[in-house]
Amino acid sequence: MILDLGGNEDVDVLNDEDHDISPNSNEFMQFVEDRDKPLYHGCTKSTKMNGLVQTFNLKAKHGFSDSCYTDILILFHTLLPDGNEVPGDLNVDAKKCPSCDASRWKLAKDGSEKVGVQAKTLWYFPLIPRFRRMFQSTVSTKELIWHARGRKKDGMMRHPGDSPT
Fold first, then answer.
1. Which residue in 26, 37, 113, 122 could disulfide with 105, CB within 3.0 to 4.6 Å?
2. Is residue 32 within a helix (H) or strand (E), and if so which, with residue range?
3. Can you tell me the distance from the alpha carbon of 68 to that of 56, in angstroms, rounded to the nearest whole number?
């Protein structure tokens, strides 16, 4: 059941003329199709999506390098029967982005590529260990939670946290 802001039921959102299909929907639909595609012909235990997610979890859990992960995928591709759905390569050694054709490497001031210095890097910032360290001391814990317990709540604005928004 779909409700609009006024509480009216049965709002027809699928036939809305302003609703356009995103250009990225084809890529998403490919992932949806991979969810049901068997890993190889006759396989009933795993799908392509399930197999890739499990190998990505192993990569993250054990800290495999990108080249090691690619080698494992190539090994799985050769061990499974012909026509399997395991990708043999994930474009780890690609020089350009497959979708926008931009360089993978940072550019120097003279315009040449700095090979080995990636243009974009995804950094992981583990929050839970940091929070545990912050709340280990009773003194720092009192300072970290002062806004919830130590402030006066009499309607006067003394801190931005007292604002009505």
1. 113
2. helix 25-36
3. 12
